[in-house]
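Posting for a labmate who doesn't have an account.
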Amino acid sequence: MQDWTFYIETYGCKVNQYESQALREAWLGLGGREVPEPQAADYLLVNSCAITARAERDARNAIYRLRRLAPEGRIILTGCAAQFFGDFMPRKNAFHARPDICLKQSDKSRLMAGPTCTESQDGDFAIRGYTRGRPVVKVQDGCSQKCTYCIVPYTRGKPVSRKPDDILAECRRLFASGFCEIVISGVNLRQYGKDNENYGDFWDLLAHVDRGLAGEFAQFGRLRISSIEPAQLGGKALETLAACRMCCPHLHLSLQHASPAILKRMGRGHYSMDSIARFMDGLRKLWPIFGLGADIIAGFPNESEEDLQILLDFMESLPLTYAHVFPYSQRPGTPAAAFAGQMEKREKLRRAAMLREQAAELKKRFLQGLLEAGPMWIAPDSSLRAEGVWHGVNEYYAPCIFKAPCREHKGFVRALPKAVGCSGLEVEIF
């Protein structure tokens, strides 16, 4: 192919973002040219998500919209929603468009050989750069946990781990090119190494990467863990975090709930709130200040008012600094979709609003406390700036806003917290 153009839209998780970046770099290396508008593209890639029914709908809507905008372009649908596209039945006489190429998630890596190479041998995802300020590095794919609400094990398959030295080399390339923060991500980090005992577990991997990079990059680079399972929290985790020189003082938990009854129905009875609380007691001794986030599902089938109160109370007891709250989505193809006790949408939204209000108050308290924390290092996001106002995150994953000269900021900026604004911590660089 000669003089061809492409356009990419990405939905869903950080792993999808990583894979889109890998495809972008591969296509640029094959002579393609990325364009900012779909109308100018020969090939249009939709890298989709299916974590909720809404996410799957977003993928269909993207296909319809792109077909209208670029009727002559070749549309490629891949990612987790691709395997469900053919099952959708549109309303009678409704506009309906289909992708020219539909590759399910397990076949996505074939696109590393080019946008038309759907029958070739799979290529390995790898990146050398990133379009945003904080690159994501995928260390693991797939999940065998099979939570009753989750479609991911059926779309991404069994756990597959990357080689530790390949991960280390990729992180080194990114730091060497000037990036200051790397997000270590996977579909289920608890299952890293399950497919190869020689790799160790996730904490072994983190220790390996930190040891390999700290001597060269610890002064101006840091590693951030994207999301971990509560069952990973224990003595080995504390020992590893204590020894790491580059790991941010921040964790994000795939918590989902705090009621034992609801966790059991979710298929997540492999951890307890007591074990999480004990771990947090140890973590406070290690990190005097740290960020702590959580994913939470509101309105799961048969969630009682008592279950909801247990969750609210546990959130209050944690040193939680923010939370991502999602109303339960009845996902076809999962066991929970057939459970009794499904709630009306209005009730799920009411409960989610209560949890978000609680999380907002905890976040506000944390940001107020950071006003006394002294100087901090901000990782700017060059994609989130306008008229001299920049956005970024500090080491605790608190959102920060600051004014800066009109130039690129690829590395850290040093700043002092000044006030708590509606969008986060207002800081002044120096």
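Reply:
Got it, the structure tokens are right above this. The first strand starts at residue 4 and ends at 10.
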